[in-house]
Amino acid sequence: MSGIDDLPPLRDVIARHGIAAKKSLGQNFLLDLNLTAKIARQAGDLSAADVLEVGPGPGGLTRGLLAEGARKVLAIEKDPRCMEALAEIAAAYPGQLEVINGDALEVNPQAHLTPPIKVAANLPYNVGTELLVRWLTPKDWPPFWESLTLMFQREVAQRIVAEPGNKAYGRLAILSQWRADPAIVMELPPGAFSPPPKVNSAVVHLTALPAPRFPADPSVLNRVVAAGFNQRRKMLRAALKPLGPDMEDHLRTAGIAPTERAEQVSLEAFCALARSVAGAS
Ligand code: SAM
Fold first, then answer.
1. Number of domain units in the chain
2. Angle, CA 114 vertex, CA 141 and CA 28 arms, to 5°
3. CATH number for position 130
4. Are residues 190 and 260 in the same domain?
5. pLDDT for the residue numbered 281
6. In a domain? residue 249
C-alpha cells in the first residue's frame, strides 16, 4: 500500500500497464506518493476547489491531489497508455476524477470545471512554458484560475521569479509578475523522478492578482517584451526597431532611456511602454 491511498504502488502500476517512459512526451515520473502529496499541498486548500491537472501520466500527482481532498480533478493526458491507470484512480475516488485523453494545448478545460479552479502540473518544459504564457495572457483578467502550481526545470523557475538586473530576467518574469504573484516553493533533485532528468527541478506557485499591477494590453506587452529581450544585449532603440519607426519616442514617453537594455527595465516601465505603443496604434 502506498500510505496515502489504497491503490497499488506506482512502480507496479507502470509495469502492469506498460507505461515505459517516453522521451518524446517528456516523461519523467514522480513515484514517491509522499512527495506528490507534498507538491499537492503547495496548491493550498483543495477541498473547495476544482483542480485542472495537465499531464498526469500514471497519476502520482493526481493521487496526491485527491488524497489532499480536491473537490474534483480534471486530468488531461496525451498518452493513451496512461488511461487504464488513471481509470483505476477514478474508480477509487468516485465522481471526483475526470480524465481526458488529449493534448492540453488543444483542449478547453473550462467547460468541465466549476470555479474556484486551481491548476497543478508536472509537464515537459516546452508545453509547460507555452501553457503558462497562455494562462497569463488572456485578454480579460482575472483569469479562470485562482492559482497555478507548476513543476519546471529549476532554470525556468528562476526565470519566472527573476528581478531586473538578473540575467534570468525576461519575458517570463514580466508576464508572471505583471498579473500574478510567483514564488519558488520547492526544489527537487533529478533523483526524485524516474527516469531522472539531467537538470534540477522546482515547483513554482503563482497566485492570480485581482487586477494587473499596472495597466497594459496583454498582447502589446507580450510583443514589446518579446522584441526587447529577443536581442537582450542590444540597446532598446535597436532591439525594438522591428516594431516600428517611432519606438524611440515611445521609449521616451515611457521614461525609458533608448540606450537602456531590456534587462534593466522594470515591469512598471515596460507596461508604460506598452500603453504608449497601444495608444499610437
Ligand atoms: N504528472 C506525472 C508525474 O508527475 O509523474 C507525469 C509527469 S511527466 C514530466 C509529463 C506528462 O505530461 C507525461 O505523462 C506526458 O505524457 C504528458 N504530456 C506531454 N505533453 C502533453 C500535452 N501536450 N498534453 C497533455 N499531456 C502531455
1. 2
2. 85
3. 3.40.50.150
4. no
5. 58
6. yes
Q: Does the global pTM surpass 0.85?
A: yes
In which domain, by residue range, is 137 found?
Answer: 10-208
pLDDT at 133: 94
Last residue of a domain, one of 179, 208, 237: 208
Q: Which of 150, 176, 208 is the last residue of a domain?
A: 208
Residues at CB less than 6 angstroms from ligand 1: 25-30, 54-57, 60-61, 76-79, 103-105, 122-124, 127
Distance of CA 252 to CAs 127, 223, 248, 259, 270, Å?
36, 18, 6, 10, 12
- Atom of ligand 1 lying closest to residue 62 CA: 1
Q: How far is the CA of 122 from the centre of ligand 1 (A)?
A: 7
pLDDT in tens, 130-156: 999 999 999 999 999 999 999 999 999
What is the predicted pLDDT for the residue at 274?
98
* Per-residue confidence (pLDDT) for residue 125, from 0 to 100: 87
Residues of the chain scoring pLDDT < 70: 1-3, 281
H-type helices in the chain, by residue range?
A: 10-17, 33-41, 60-67, 83-92, 125-136, 154-161, 171-179, 218-230, 236-239, 247-253, 267-280
What's the CATH code of the domain at 245?
A: 1.10.8.100
Ligand 1 geometric centre to CA of 25 (Å): 7
